[in-house]
Structure formats: C-alpha cells, structure tokens
Write a structure and sequence with these properties.
globular, alpha+beta
Amino acid sequence: MIVFVTGDLLAAQESYIAQGVAEGNQEGLGTGLALKISKKWPNVQAAFKKYARTGRFIGGHIWTLEPDGNQPGFIYLATQPDMYHATLPYLGKQFAGL
C-alpha cells in the first residue's frame, strides 16, 4: 500500500521510503531528500551508487533496498533523465513497470 507522508519523511514509521531519481548518473544525489538519506543512512546511497554505475538503472526501472534493523527499506524509481524534473514519458515508463 502507498501512504503519502507529510512532515519529516525520515522520521516516518513506514517500512519503505520511495523517491523518484534520475536514471543512470548520480549527479543529483547530493541535494534534497537524497542528501538527507545519505547523511542518515550512508549505506543506502553507497549501495544505490554501486548499482547505478552498472548502467542498468534507466527510465522505468526500480531499485530497492530491504529494511535493516531500525533503517527503513528504500525504493528508488527512475522517473527522469536528469536531476532537474521528472518527465511524463519517464513517469509513464515507471508506472508501466509497476
């Protein structure tokens, strides 16, 4: 089930945190929510970067990391071609992939 959360997402008690990110490269992981995740759970960004460097994280793909102890799981959705904005074609691929 998808739950929309307001406020401090990193304090939410949900099992997973999902976020739309750029495909392929990691130029945007040093800003916004990604930066906050990286500071609180550095292993999440390290695991995602390792996977993204394989070149398999493209529009429509999903990357997941299972919950571990007090750390929620993470779902990264390839919703955009670059770090700026999600695009309708990418969102269409994403939803088709679900």
